[in-house]
Every structure is written in structure tokens, then in C-alpha cells.
Amino acid sequence: MKKLDRLGWAEGIGVSAFGVHLGVRVSVAGVLPQVLPLLPPGCRKSRKATVQRLYSLLVARGGQRAGVRRMHILFADSERIARDPELDEVLAALETDLHRYVAEAAPDMTFLHAGVVGWQGRAILLPGRSLSGKTTLVREMLRLGATYYSDEFAVVDDSGKVHPFARPLGIREDSTYVQTKYTAETLGAISGVKPLPLGAVVMCKYRAGARWKPAPLSHGQGALELMANSIAVRDRPQHTLRRIHKLMRSGVFVQGTRGEACESAESILNSLSVGIRQEKE
Amino acid sequence: MKEREYPRARLDCLTREFGDEILVYDRERNVGHCLNSTAAAAWKLCDGEKSTSEVAKLLTQQLSAPVDESVVQLAIEELSKARLLVEGEKPVRRTSRREAIRAIGIAGAIALPLVTSLVAPTPARAASCLANGKPCVSNAQCCSGRCGVTSGHCGG
User: Fold this and answer.
1) How far apart are CA B31 and CA A77, in angstroms?
2) B28 touching A, CB under 8 A?
3) B147 contacts in A (CB within 8 Å)?
4) Which residue ranges form the domains of chain A, and what is each CATH number?
């Protein structure tokens, strides 16, 4: 770390997100503005002298020459986490690590890997591993009028409410797994601000041509599924279980296999509307 | 010291009750288990002092429905497979699910004991994966499951 510190750093920023203090410094002036949009949603500038994790981005100087590959290198504290001739690739690695670290280290929140939308004042959670189609379903629900909360993390506070983590949606448009970013606003939706109580947890798998016929999931099974999608359960199992328990005081839990997102998205939203109406009556 | 003969639930796990089900988190192995109502009730009664027939009698009272010893045997087998009992006790006697179903009857008033287990993810596994060619530091980060050691990129 001392060796890194001795290098010349042109500019840097300290931020705080969900109670986690982070620092980013870059070796070339003018690169920092490219870093700012990658910071976790809801973060604020912080003047704290010490940070929990310091990112150092060494930007390669000069143009590319034949036979010489100039690499941009990213360190998290003293560990090298990315090295690539394309600055955009290294910046993408910075964004991924920043978000994951906040999810792992946030002291007062539990992060679950799930897509989240708001619907009639309730949160719909779509937990699932990568490539399970969370973002596709979220995008479809936004088209139907839902409010955007996240395509990556459900952020649960100590009272069991779900907060937004409204980063741009990362939509994979072909089989290469490469994501293109869209803000909710460019998709014609709005991003939520207010923490919401849980409305429904929907566990779904995609199978081409399948009809959406969800089956109820018991609370215990639902809690197990949420546990298996929580970021910090290994480090803080007690906190995680407590927050999952609080989150699950309200809401319904269903699972099923879905075909095209448009059919299942509409059905999920309609079911929740009916549930809310019945609850009010 | 008298050698323990009866099944005993591990006390070093974290637990949360969800209705009559229990979510158990095994911190040693980083595995979560969901015990359905019958498995949960049996697990609570496994204190190393009660025989399976005693557990069956107590379950009959608690669940207000007849619980055969073979159902308790099956519960203990499920719990043992999930490593939720203290090891080194008397070996668990094998009971078939069919035997337990026969004992409960087709329209049984209680559910067959069931333990569902899922491994807790590492933070890298729990987050979205990276496409081939993206910079990485561990296999868990990559959609392909492969982070090249020399290249430092997903896919090798």
C-alpha cells in the first residue's frame, strides 16, 4: 500500500453509501468525472479522513504503440482487481466491486440479490442468481407502470422495509452476457425513493414457451431462498436472518417457471393488486 | 460417563421460526436449512435424553395427531443427513419414506418430515456475474465460472 501511496495521484473523492466509507483516487486529472456515475446510488460526498476501502486507478499514459500494451490498472486497497488496455473495462470492474463491497459491508442494511419494483406502495422482490431473467422481468414491470427500485439488490432495513438501489438497469441483449445500461427514466419509468413494505417475493425460472402458473411457497422456504440470495449471510448470519424475518411479516411468496416476461409480469402485478384490494376490504 | 444413545440437536446453529417451520443456519458449514413443521417439532425434542418412541408420544400430544415412531425415525434421518444432530451418537436407523407414509396413512394429518438445505453464497457468487473478457479476480465472478489466472479476464 505504501508503494501505491507514493505514486502521484491527480484527484480523488471520498464518499459514503449505506454507512460504508469509500475512497477513489485516479492518477490522471480529468478521469474522475467518468468515475462519478459509477458510484453506488444514494452515495454522498464524505470528508472522513479514513475510508474502509480505497480504490486506486492507475491510468495508462500516452498512446498505444506497436508491440507495447499499455494497461490501466485498478487496485482495491493493495489488491489488484483489474488490468486491461480498455479504460471502460476497468471502470466497469470498479463499478462492480464498489457495489458489491457496499452490499457486503453496509452495517445497517441487508442486501439481497434481487430485482425490485414498487407497485401500489408495496415492494415486489424477484430474487435469483445471475442470468435468471430478473432484469428482463423488472423491465417488463416498468413498462406496465411499476416504479423502479433495483435490478440487482433489495436493500432491507432493520424494520423490514425495502430501500431503492436504483442503479441503471444492466440489460443483456444477446447471448454474450454483455450488459447495456439504461436508466429507468430512459425506459419511461420512474425510480422509487421511499422505503416500501414487502408485497410479494416471486421466485421464477425461465423456460421458453412455459406458462406462468405460480405455486405458493411456505414462509420457511421463502426465507431459505432469500438467505441463499443474501450477500453478507456468511459474515453476518444473525443480522441477515433477523432482517429476513422482519421483511417477511407481510407479503406473499410464490414460485414458478415463466415463459415470456410480458405474460408473467402482468400476472404478478395483477395478483398483487388483488391481494392489496382484499386486504383493504 | 454414560454414552449418549439418543439423538441430540446441535445448539451452535442460528435459528428463526417462520410459523411452525424453522430456518436453521449452520455457521460451521455455511448452509441454511428449512425444517418443515414435523421436522422442526422433532428437532426441538431431540435433547439426547428422549428415545424415538418418547419423541413420537410427545409429538402426538403437540400436533394433536397420531405420530408413528417411523415418522420420528425419518425425521431423525433427515436431520442427521443435514448434520443438524450432534455427531458421534448412536447411528441413525434407516427408515424408508414409504414406511413412514404407510404409518401416517394417505390422508395423514401431519406432513412427512422434510429438511431443505441451501448453501449460503459468497458475496461474489451472490452478485451478478461478468461476461467473458471482463477483468476478474476469482472464478466466482464470471458467468463462465472461469477467471484466467494469467490474463485476469473471464473465460480464460
Assistant:
1) 30
2) no
3) none
4) 2-105 (no CATH), 110-280 (3.40.50.300)
